[in-house]
Amino acid sequence: MGFTSILLEGDALRVINQINLSSPDLSEIGNLIDECRSLVRIFQSSSVSHVNRSANAVTHSLAKLALESKNDLYWIEDCPPIVLAIVATDCNPQI
After folding, report:
1. From CA 95, how far away is CA 85, in angstroms rounded?
2. How confident is the prediction along the chain (95 residues), in pLDDT tens digits per residue?
């Protein structure tokens, strides 16, 4: 698709820290960390940073939707209604 940069945010501090380190990860998830590092290096510009769980609501909603679905789900030019609802709430918080 021609993307040259990526901004990766996650609420698992240990995982984010391990991705940002250059030393080998010998933990039980070390292979996944190494794969994340390899994928991030594909981009000309990248940033991997920690965010609070409250800032990661869309990701958690999509993960839950994926677990509940029996089929693969794809969105190319639009997004699922749950994402729209979360973004609307983020943009218009209750006063």
Report:
1. 17
2. 688 999 888 889 999 999 999 888 899 999 999 999 999 999 999 999 998 887 778 888 888 888 998 988 888 888 888 888 888 877 766 65
Q: Count Cα neighbours of 6 within 13 Å in the Cβ-side half-sphere.
A: 16
Tokens of 88: 């609307």
Q: Is the pTM of the predicted complex or chain greater than 0.90?
A: no
Other CB atoms closer than 10 Å to residue 18's CB: what's the count? 21
Contacts of 23 (CB under 8 A, 6+ apart): none
Please check whether residue 15 is in contact with residue 33, taking contact to mean a CB–CB distance below 8 angstroms.
yes
* Rounded-to-integer distance, Cα 46 and Cα 58, Å: 20
Cα dist. 65→47, 59, 60, 78, 79 in Å?
26, 10, 9, 16, 12
